[in-house]
Amino acid sequence: MAIDLPFIWALILAIGVMMYVLLDGFDLGVGMFTAIAQSEEERNMMTATVEPVWDGNETWLIIGGGGLFAAFPTAYAIIMPAFYLPVLIMLAALIFRGVAFEFRHKAVRRPTRIFWNGAFYGGSFTAAFSQGIMLGGMVQGIHVEGGAFAGGAFDWLTPFTLLTGISVVIGYMLLGACWLVLKTEGELHDKARKWGRMALAGVAICFLAVSFATLSVDASIGDRWGFSMSHIEPARFLPLAPVPLVSMALVVWLWRDLSMKQGAVGTAPDWRPYLLAAGIFASGYVGLGVSLYPFIVPYEISIHEAAARDNALVLMLVGAVIMLPIILAYTAYVYSLFWGKVKPGDGYHAH
Hints:
Strand content: under 5%
Strand order of the largest sheet: 1-2
Oligomer: single chain
C-alpha cells in the first residue's frame, strides 16, 4: 500500500495550526483582557500567567507557515498573495506586541506605561482579528486562474470575513479567560469565570452565525453536510451530526463549570474549563476540515495537486519525525515546570 504523503503532510500542518490556535490563542486572549484590568497589579498578574510560555507558543505558527511553504509550494504561492496585507498586519501586531510585553515592565513614567499597555492589548486584538479575517477568506474561497492567484488585493475584506474575524477574537478571549481560571486565585479568578461566561455566550452566537453564513458563501459546503436553509438530507447529515452535537455538549458543560465559584461544593477542577474550551475549538476545527477537504486552496486546488515531489516530502518527513517530538516534549516540559497558580509578584519582571 502506497503511503499518501500529501495527506500526512496536510495532517501535520493541521496539527501545527491547531496547536498554535490553542496555545497562542489563550495568551492573545489574556492580552486582550488586560485592557479591562482595574489596576496595574491586576494587569501584571494577567501577564505573569503567560510570561514563561508566550514566545514558545508562537513556534507553532512558524511550523505552520514553514510547512506550507515546503510541503505545498503551489498553495503557498497562491495563499500568500491573496492575504499579503492581513499577513503583514498580523506579523507586525505580533512583533509590536512582543516589544510591548517587555517594555511595559521597564516603563517608569505613567504615560509611557499606558502607551505600552495599549500596544500590548492592541497588538493582541489586531493579531487575533487578522487571523480570523484570513480564516474567513479561506472559507469563502480564493480566485485562481492558471495555477496562480487572480483575485484582487482586498478580496479578503468582506462582511463574512469581518464576522469570522470577530468570532476568532471572541474565541481567543474564551481561551484566555479559561487560562486565567486555571492560573489565578481570588478576585481575578472570579472575574475570569465571569469573563469566560460572557465570551462563551459570544462564541455560541458566532458559531451559529458563521455556520449559517457559510451556507451562502459556497453551496458545496452545505451539500457536503447535507444541510441547507430549506432542507436536511439525513443520509449525509447524520454521519456528521456528532461534530455539532459534541460542540453543543461542550458549550453546556463549560457554562456549568464557569458558573461555579472557586472552592464551592462540586466545583470542577480549574484545569477543566480550558480543556473544554480547547475541545470546542477542536470540534469546530474538525468541522472546518470536513467542509474544506481535500482542498488546500478552497475550492480550486487539492492537497495532492499542491504538494511538492514525493522525494522532497519523504526527506522533510524524516526531519519532522525527529523534530516534532522534541518540540512537543519541550513544550510539555515548560508547561509542567511553570504549572500552578500565579501569586502576586510572580513573573521574571517582578524583581
